[in-house]
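Entry for zinc ion complex. Fields follow.
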Amino acid sequence: MMDQATLQRFPLSDIETAMFEDGGFCILCGEPSDDAVESDARGYRCGVCGKPGVHGAEEILMMDLVD
Ligand SMILES: [Zn+2]
């Protein structure tokens, strides 16, 4: 179980754009995914921090990490 306090938050506009473009974000370092991911992707490896933090846009919305 990840500590919620360490997770990044994302602006709604970024998430909306990502939903149209199959984008994802790393919830650990906040960087966008280089590769397209499914909107319900969870725990993909991040090319920036190397941790399994990349989640799809819809998943980030479900996790309530959107402002
Ligand atoms: Zn990362």
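NOTE: The first helix runs from residue 12 to 21.
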